[in-house]
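Okay, is this right?
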Amino acid sequence: MSTVKKLLLGLEQKYKICAVLAPVAIMGEVLLEVFIPFIMAKIIDVGIAEQDAAYVIKTGSLMIGAALFSLIFGVIAGRFAAVSALGFARNLRRRLFAKIQEFSFSNIDKFSTSSLVTRLTSDVTNSQNTFQMIIRMCVRSPFMFISAIVMAFYMNSELALIFVVCIPLIAVPMIFIMKTAHPRFQVLMKNYDNLNAKVQENLIGIRAVKAFVREENEKTKFNDAAEAIRNAQVRAEKIVILSMPLMILVIYIALIALLWFGGNFIIAGKMQTGELISFITYMVQILSSLMMLSMIFIMIVISKASIGRIIEVFDEEPDVKDSVDSALSADKAPADGSVEFRNVSFSYDKTEKNAVLHDISFLIKSGETIGIIGGTGSSKSTIVQLILRLYDTLCGSVLVGGNDVKSYKLEKLRENIAIVLQKNVLFSGTILENLRWGNKNASTEQIENACRTACAHDFIISFPKGYETELGQGGVNLSGGQKQRLCIARALLKEPKVLILDDSTSAVDTATDAAIRNGLKNTLPETTKIIIAQRIASVKDADRIFVIDEGRISSIGTHDELIKSNKIYREVFESQQKGSDFDGAGDSAAKEAAASKKEAL
């Protein structure tokens, strides 16, 4: 599909009509503008030369009427062009955003968040300006150029040869400017990406910045990024600004040649005074149309980088998408919450040498509670992301409900799996609106029950507006533990067959953590629960615990079994037990293991 089709695809009919009517109105405007100098020549050479006042009034009225209608056509063309350009930008942003929503995590990692923001804003604005200029200037300039050239040759073909000489003087340098400027504007847009990344990073981490008194350092980083943009823009504009003096130089050369040869033609009787004046007007129209064309070329050069970046997003194929099998079984959903990994390996860059998971195999029965524990960077979160198909495996297969996850439509698969991420994500709006992300049709009773299970109901009703309390962006007016509990309640409203808690109780105290786990056990007995945690207290009551070490399953067992048999688990347990009273089923086993260790020493 061509670039133009990709950009215009899905443009609404009313904007298409405006995009067509704008050039039509412009053509009417240009025809009248080109006709005016011809009328003016007649007034001078016939009316004034023969002192015919009636002819001057009659022809002058015709010229005024032509100018008036030309103005009307120009206003109409401007409105149509503006409306169609705004519609084009709206359509482009909507389609870009929709495309980004289809991306998997790996696609977003490839572009980066800051780059995608720039493409949705600055790049679309550049494309909008270019679109508006194209439907106006790209019609006006060539049409005026051709019309004025025709009229000039009609009036005096010998004198019109001046334009034939001047056109190459403009065309050749303009081609050079376009080729040289384009890569420089590509560098400029990359610097915009970098600036957006710095701003985004600073605003997200503003609390850390202030806590560590790093404001001056952040200002320096921002100033460096802004300075890089300035330098890149100056370097690009140095080439572009050559176009204007070049155009003015050619206009003056043409004017001098026109006056010299035109004056001689008048003296020789080959031309009349009015024709020369009209010829000068046509010269201005021809060269101004070339100047407009040069501006269009410059604008295209500037926006070519932006358009290319937009097309990159449209051309990007989502790494994770519905397969042919899933399309044939659109209504198929997981029968239960069983999860199985068969010889699964995974790599973020899709190369075996950089795999972060190695030959993982296990079976989780429906309704089981599974704990996953391991060191930082051991790929615990990666395992659960594969269950949701946020990424696809490098090799091996993941099964949910007895079927490969690729055999389900993504929507059906994810409707039956709820995940509470390590990083809490809340959106602007009320608490109730955020909770309804889990189930938009949930009743008040369902919402309150989910919040009670997640130990969130009490703190919610303590707010003056309760469930109608407005949350700032990202839930900035809540504590970390409150955010986590709201996210858990939101996940529970989905009534999932598989519930994944990815270190989602790290910000709550151990008593609340225990209450949440007890609530999940009582309210969701048939739901498979997978709990990723750093604290052993969060997983000690699980039916089985997976110990992950460097992308491999080190051991699987109950808390008591792992205390005895797994060195990694035992060391973590002992390090967390120091200085605290660790109540739990593993105490006796821990003491027994410690005694054995002491005896061995």
Notes: Residues 11-315 form a domain with the ABC transporter transmembrane region fold fold (CATH 1.20.1560.10). The chain is about 65% helix and 10% strand. The chain has a mean pLDDT of 84.
